[in-house]
Amino acid sequence: xxxxNDFAFKQRKYMPVFPKANGKTTVYIEGYPCEDDxxxxxxxxxxxxxxxxxEQFKRYFAINEQxxxxxxxxxxxxxxxxxxxxxxxxxxxxxxxKYPLRRSFYTWAEGAAPVAVFEFLSDSTAHQDRGExxxxxLKDIGVQEYFIHQPELKKxxxxxxxxxxxxxxxxxMAPDAAGGLFSEALNLYFRYEExxxxxxxxxxxxxxxxTPMTTALEEHHLRAAAQARLAEExxxxxxxxxxxxxxRKQLANLQRQR
Length: 258
Description:
With 258 residues, the chain is an alpha+beta fold. It folds into 2 domains: 3-214, tt1808, chain A (Alpha-Beta Complex), CATH 3.90.1570.20; 215-258. Helix content is 34%, strand content 21%. The protein has 6 helices and 12 strands. The strands form 3 sheets. A 6-stranded mixed beta sheet has the order 1-4-6-7-8-9. The mean pLDDT is 91.
């Protein structure tokens, strides 16, 4: 089976369908700060997790130009009030243009709110992430699903998720036997794997049928393996053609000798 082409087929099959937002792509609005003094990630563990998952999302959702993926940038959700602002580690918005990139995301200008938000727990923000931010994201901003995860392997495992029900109430998702959660908004399944060599508890996405979403390195290896197989098959065909040509010449010589 051609693993890359098989995944591309499934990628199109499982991609969410959604309407286009009714707003306008907005790179920046004067008066709304787009920077602070905080670093992007709290630790190397967070950096590994954020960069890896963002890169996976970016490649997976690349086939739809109406999906925007934000990473550690401000979301302003109340026009005229710069205090109504959050900066999640990763968030995904459906129905708005992927490009141009934004300095911040303004929900009223774009006419959309993120469908999913991911926060990775750190000592300084964990209490807020698992507490007040649940209501801020799901009720105040209108996010459909919110996930938190502890990426540092030496800390207790914690992967939780909440969603808004049809009635607007907040419901915590029930994990499966493997501790994984299914995102209805993204049509993706998530569970973590423990990487002993990096000491990172890496949260990874899977397609609904259990197919893992590759990392950039894994995809590079798959492409290299596919190219190696193609080169090997091409060489076999050349060798077979060369051998066939030798046999033809030998047959022609025999016929002339008669």
